[in-house]
Amino acid sequence: MKILGLCLCIVLNVLANDGKILFEKHCVSCHTPFVPMLKLKENFLEHNNTLLKLKAPTLNQLSYRLKQRIGDPKGDEEMHRMEVTAFMSDYVYHPDKSKSVCLDEVMLHFKTMPSLKGKVSEDALDRIGEYLYDFDEEVIKSKGIQFEGFDVAVNLAQKEHKLIMIEAMTSTCHFCRKMQREVMIDKEVVQMIEKSFVPVAIDIHKNSLPLGIKVEVTPSFIFVDAQKNVLMNVPGAWGKKDFLALLKEAKLRSKRRKNEK
C-alpha cells in the first residue's frame, strides 16, 4: 500500500507539472495565476475591476471556488478531483456564464470565454485539471506561514525569544480556511509572525490543545510565552487589520508581564 501511495503521488506530481506547462500555454493569456484574495476583493468590490483590469478569474479564485462548489469537498479526494476536472473540461468546451462557480459580482466584469473545443485536447484538460485542483493549497504552502509542533515551538520560542501563537482549527472550518487564504498568506502578516512568533496549528478534532487550554469556536488564537504562560485566548476569524492589531496586543501583554516581574 505504501508503494502504491508513493506511485500515486509521483503520478500526480508529473501530471501537475505537465498541467502547469499546459496552463501557461493555453490559459495564462486570460487567467492570471495568482492575486492575493484581499487585493481581489479590493479590485472587484471597491474599484469595479479598474485596479487590476483582469480579463477572467484568477487561477487561485477558480481553484478554490471549483473545489467548494463542485461535487463533495468533504468526500473522497480522487472522486472529487475527477468531478472538478470533468466540470472544468465541459465548461471550457461549452462555456456558459450561467454555469460559472464564481460570484456574480465578479463575473459581471467578464465576457463569456470562447470555446476551446478542437484547440485543447481532453488529455491536456485532465492535466490542467490536476494543476488547478492543487493550486489553491500550493499557494497557502508557498506563501503562508510554516507551522511547528508545540514542543518544537517551545524550544524555538526560548531560543529565539519569541511568543508562541496557537491556531485552534479544524479541517472543515470555513472561517479557518478563509483566514488561511486571505490573511495568513498576506505579506505583512507573514512578516510579523515570522519576526515575533512561532506559529502552531492544532486540529482540535484530532488532537487536544496543550496546557489544558480549551476553546469554544474555531478558529481561536492562543498566545503563549516561552515559559508556557497563556497570555491571550481569543476566538474568531479576523481580517488583516484586526489580526495585525491582535498580534501587537499579544506582544504588548508579554512585555507588560515581563515588566511586572
Q: Overview of this structure, please?
A:
This protein has helices spanning 2-26, 37-47, 59-69, 77-93, 104-107, 122-143, 150-160, 174-182, 187-196, 240-260, and strands at 163-169, 197-203, 220-224, 230-235. The chain has 261 residues and is α+β, with helices and mostly antiparallel strands. It has two domains: 13-143, Orthogonal Bundle (Cytochrome Bc1 Complex, Chain D, domain 2), CATH 1.10.760; 150-260, 3-Layer(aba) Sandwich (Glutaredoxin), CATH 3.40.30. It has a four-stranded mixed beta sheet with strand order 2-1-3-4, sandwiched between helices. Helix 3 crosses helix 6 and helix 9 (187-196) packs parallel to helix 10. The longest helix has 25 residues, at 2-26. The radius of gyration is 21 Å and the shape is elongated. Mean pLDDT is 92; it is low at 2-15.
List the main descriptive attributes of the protein structure presented here.
single chain; 261 residues; alpha+beta; Cytochrome Bc1 Complex, Chain D, domain 2; Glutaredoxin; 4-stranded mixed sheet; 4 strands
Topology:
Blueprint: H1 2-26, H2 37-47, H3 59-69, H4 77-93, H5 104-107, H6 122-143, H7 150-160, E1 163-169, H8 174-182, H9 187-196, E2 197-203, E3 220-224, E4 230-235, H10 240-260
Parallel strand pairs: 1-2
Antiparallel strand pairs: 1-3, 3-4
CATH topology of the largest domain: Cytochrome Bc1 Complex, Chain D, domain 2
Overall structural domain count:
2
Radius of gyration: 21 Å
Compute the average pLDDT: 92
Describe the main β-sheet briefly: 4 strands, mixed
Are there runs of 5+ residues with pLDDT below 50, and where? 2-15
Beta-strand share of residues: 5-15%
Name of the CATH class of the largest domain: Mainly Alpha
Number of contiguous helices: 10
Can you count the beta strands?
4
Helix and strand succession?
A: HHHHHHHEHHEEEH
Q: What would you call the structural class?
A: alpha+beta
Helix content: 40-55%
Q: Ends: how far apart?
A: 56 Å
CATH architecture of the largest domain: Orthogonal Bundle
Global shape: elongated
Spatial order of strands in the largest sheet: 2-1-3-4
